Amino acid sequence: MGIRIALAGNPNCGKTTLFNALTGSNQFVGNWPGVTVEYKEGKYKGDKEVTIVDLPGIYSLSPYTLEEVVSRNYLIDEKPNAIINVIDGTNLERNLYLTTQVVELGIPVVIAINMMDVVEKNGDKINTKRLAEEIGVPVFEISALKNRGLKEIVDAGVKAAKEAKPQSPKHRFDGSVEHALAHIEELCLHNVSDENVQRWYSIKLFERDEKIQEKLGLSSDVISHIEQDIQSCEKEMDDDSESIITGERYNYIGTIIDGCVKKAAKGMTISDKIDQVVTNRFLALPIFAIVMWLVYYISVTTVGGWATDWANDGVFGDGWHLFAIGSSDYADAADEFAANQLIVDGYDVYVEENGTEPTGDFDYPVEDEETLEVSYETASLEDYEAAKAYVESTEEPDPADYGIWIPGVPVFVESALDAINCNDVVKSLVLDGIVAGVGAVLGFVPQILILFIFLAFLESCGYMARVAFIMDRIFRKFGLSGKSFIPMLIGTGCGIPGIMASRTIENDRDRKMTIMTTTFIPCGAKLPFIAMVAGAIFGGASWVAPSAYFLGIFAIIVSGIMLKKTKLFAGDPAPFVMELPAYHWPTVGNVLRSMWERGWSFIKKAGTIILLSTIVIWFLTFFGFVDGAFTMLEEDQIDHSILAMLGKCLAWIFIPLGFGDWEATVASITGLVAKENIVGTLGIIYGASGDVYATMAQAFTAASGFAFLAFNLLCAPCFAAMGAIKREMNNTKWFWTAIGYQCGFAWIIGLIVYQVGKVFTGEGFTFGTIFGIAAICALLYGLFRKDKYNK
Amino acid sequence: MMPLVVAPVGEEQMIKRIGGNEEAKRHLQELGFVPGGYITVVNEIGGNLIVNVKESRVAVDKQLAQKIFV
Question: What is the CATH number of the domain that holds A192?
Answer without folding.
Answer: 1.10.287.1770
